[in-house]
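User: Here's a protein and a ligand (uridine-5'-diphosphate-glucose). What would the complex look like?
Assistant: Let me lay out the input and then the predicted complex.
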Amino acid sequence: MLWFFNQAFRWRPVSRSAKVEDLPVDSNLPGLDIFVCTIDPEKEPTIDVMETIISAIAMDYPANKLAVYLSDDGGCPVTLYGIKEASEFAKVWVPFCNKYGIKSRTPRVFFSSMGKEEQFIRTHEFRAEQEEIKAKYKEMQNNIEKFGSEPQNIGIVNDRPARIEFRVSGILSNGPYVLVVDCDMFCNDPSSAKQAMCFFLDPQTSNYISFVQFPQMFYNLSKKDIYDNQSRSAFKTMWQGMDGLRGPGLAGSGNYLNRSSLLFGGPNQKDDYLLDALNYFGKSTMFIESLKTIRGHKTTKKNIPRDEILREAQVTDPWFAVFAFLYVATQIQHLIEVLSGGGSVTMWWNEQRIWILKSVTSIFAIIEAMKKGLGLKKKKISLSNKALDKESVKKYEQGRFNFQGAALYMSPMFVLLIVNIVCFFGGLWRVLKVKDYVEMFGQLFLLSYIIVLSYPIVEAIVTMKSN
Ligand SMILES: O=c1ccn([C@@H]2O[C@H](COP(=O)(O)OP(=O)(O)O[C@H]3O[C@H](CO)[C@@H](O)[C@H](O)[C@H]3O)[C@@H](O)[C@H]2O)c(=O)[nH]1
């Protein structure tokens, strides 16, 4: 069944690329508001949040058309202090990036080994300026760190999520397009905003595109990537597959959105909401005025031939009737997808392992969704920790699985695995006794495949190395 439904992703994958040179001149580009939100400086260190803010400010987009908002749901003094420091630093950082055409516009990336290629064939003047900026960068970091070391500056004043960026920005800058990023993300290509505009401003795609989703990637992946964190299958196979069907889903962040679609539905939605605006959007007359501006907004569209900005690829997969053939073919198909994208056999193996883990542990998501559907669950957002735990990072880099803290989530996996192991030995015993090799071959093969795939969990159970 799973195989069957998954084929939909392969029917008509679409891979898109944009030609920013064909966009209208900067003065004709529409406004863009970037939203970043944070809540807890202990889980989301302010220094890191400011990297995200600086990379957003440094986007290759006309300054008078770009507004960056940071919402602090925790209302912490250190966040306010941090953004003042970051905006001061941005005053030197952005001109530097523009002057030298820097691509890695997140200072942490530029000053790390990831930014090495930016250093090639550079003048003395560049090096001198770079040193000056590095000193200012360090100063900003030290100041924020010092301020954040005082307990009264990192306390959460208000832990009720406000998420008011959308309304506030509607009154202040009201950009017809918005970008949403988490506070631990940064953009690795400053032209991404312009690339997104290619889709919004193209007369053909603008009729049906409400958002442009960029793939999310981790920058500190280890070579072994045992947890399949690079999410190749999500952003290559699934998102491109959905794009060719009825369009991909939102990935939560990393998406440029048409503000009008967010407010009123699709780009062609009628004005019903505006007719009863007070009811839908509250009593702020200023905000309602801002909605009218957005509704009436006409972007300067340039007639770009569609083929020039979008490239599409179509693949049709054959239908396999025999189960064994289906199984082998699926594995080969998966392997080819991984290898053709520059991946390795280890990556293919890790993807299979994590796929099983995710499939089995998704039982918890199903329970959560059911509770929510039945109204048994209060709305609560649990925040993921972004502060690096050195011990866990070390384990990850060494390619060692870390099950600490995951005991509950792993329990269905443990149970299934133990059932598998028992069945495997039961099957072996039957083969030796009854000698029905042909009948048992398929079952024993599948059982051993799952056991080998789950080796790290078997090891954890046997040695009880982790909690
Ligand atoms: O009450 C809250 C809770 C969260 N956040 C912010 O929301 C963002 C996302 O929260 P996080 O815990 O980081 O979510 P993750 O589970 O790590 O990320 C997943 O969920 C996000 C929200 O849907 C998506 O944007 C990501 O792509 C996806 O990886 C962060 O910037 C948080 O600071 C708030 O501002 N207020």
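Summary: The longest strand covers residues 32-38.
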